[in-house]
Amino acid sequence: MKSDVKKIIEKELGKYKQKDIKISDKRYVLYVVPELCNEDLNIFEGFIFLETDNRSEVFELKTRYKPPVSGYAPRIGIILYEDHLLIKDYRNNKHIIKTLKKINGTFLEKLKKALSDPTEANLNKLFDRSDVIEEFYILFKKSREYLLKKIRGISEEENKEEFIDNFMMQMLTLWYLQERGFFNNDKNYFITKFNELKQKKLFGGFDSYYEFLTYLFEKIGDNLNSQYYEDEIVGRVVVIGPAVFLNGEHRKAISVPDECFYKEGMTETLINIPPGKMSTEVPLLNLFESRDWTEGNIDEFVLGSIYEKLITYMERKELGAYYTPEEITSYICKNTIELYLVDRINEKFNENFINVDQIIESNNRDVLLYLYEQLKEIKILDPAVGSAHFLESAINVLVGIYEKIREKAKELNIKKGLEITATDEKGEIRKINLLEISDEERFKLLIKFFIILSRNLYGVD
């Protein structure tokens, strides 16, 4: 797939004039796109494309680089690295990362269109996930039908449907957590355990994979006195508490055939064949494995969208449950949160800053550290939280500001003032200096868990 994607990109970019540009002391080829240029404003934008194994270079182009407001500059960055494709829109400051082996025909067509006819609409479609949501939902329904047909132990159809809906949403949530290393630090944990069961290597004497899941759910839902649970059956797993399992009982009398969970070779079929042409026999784990869970693909927003689609019209009407699109929640959160912070800074320092970026770029140490303190203390409430789309958008806005503060603090050679109180893997409380965290994902995790989720966000439903 990597060579196919590379050929498509190089073929489409070949028609554009090239300009040598410099980014952070490195030279890149800018493919200048006439549709993205304005001579009167001295704006000449286009694509940059590179293939690299240098993670520092990827981080620089993805996170730190900010193009100039005029002159020759990339509008879109396209980066092939390891087994991923990164696409960054520098003007709108958004990106998407695709796992190469999971890129399907739908996305390839969007990529070709954006490169050959780079209108605003076609460029924006690269980041639009409505097709991701729709395709996933179609397959999700097929998997649901398969489970409904095969499950045993529940007599009434209504109860059977309720159980399956709860079970599938629980598994969807757990798969999402698996992708973040919650279970034995294995991003393929549920399939690993399925294969161990099939190969008779899984301890515990389980007769079916569903029996193993029931055992796992008990261990990660009930052991509230510890951050982790560990035994020879499940490995070392994060205890997530009972919240995920409140709406569904995993009764011992229920049986679900292993074929409903995983079939060898089915994942590739689900990637390559359009969802509408698939049969109704879609194993649940194959469905999850076939989709892309990297940044900008299936994430909290998509989980909320799937949840919203599963609620019938009558239930929405009765519960008042409505899904607000990501574009709207992001816009509202960004403008509300940033305006609040700007007001606090202007009031404290008698300034007239317009936005958070202007505050950060003022290069004032006292202002920067005060902004960090205000950010830690901000309180955001969603009184009708639903599937938490507004709060997810708020998290993204807050994390983005924390990242900018950290980068500017490093530039200003600030050594102290950006500390948090957190627990280490032994459960011991200690101070952590965020300026000493080099791993980007660990930085985000610490910010989310020990500041944002514990101090900033509140939801009621």
UniProtKB/TrEMBL annotation:
Which UniProt keywords are listed?
A: Methyltransferase, Transferase
Any one GO MF term held by the record is: site-specific DNA-methyltransferase (adenine-specific) activity
Reactions mediated catalytically: a 2'-deoxyadenosine in DNA + S-adenosyl-L-methionine = an N(6)-methyl-2'-deoxyadenosine in DNA + S-adenosyl-L-homocysteine + H(+)
Keyword Methyltransferase part of the UniProt annotation = yes
Question: What InterPro entries does the annotation carry?
Answer: N4_N6_ade-DNA_methylase (IPR050953), SAM-dependent_MTases_sf (IPR029063)
EC nos: 2.1.1.72
The biological process GO terms on file are:
methylation
Q: Which Gene3D superfamilies match?
A: Vaccinia Virus protein VP39
Tell me which PANTHER family the record gives.
DNA METHYLTRANSFERASE A, DNA METHYLTRANSFERASE YEEA-RELATED
Question: Any idea what this protein is called?
Answer: site-specific DNA-methyltransferase (adenine-specific)
Organism, per UniProt?
A: candidate division WOR-3 bacterium
Q: What is the lineage of its organism?
A: Bacteria, Bacteria division WOR-3
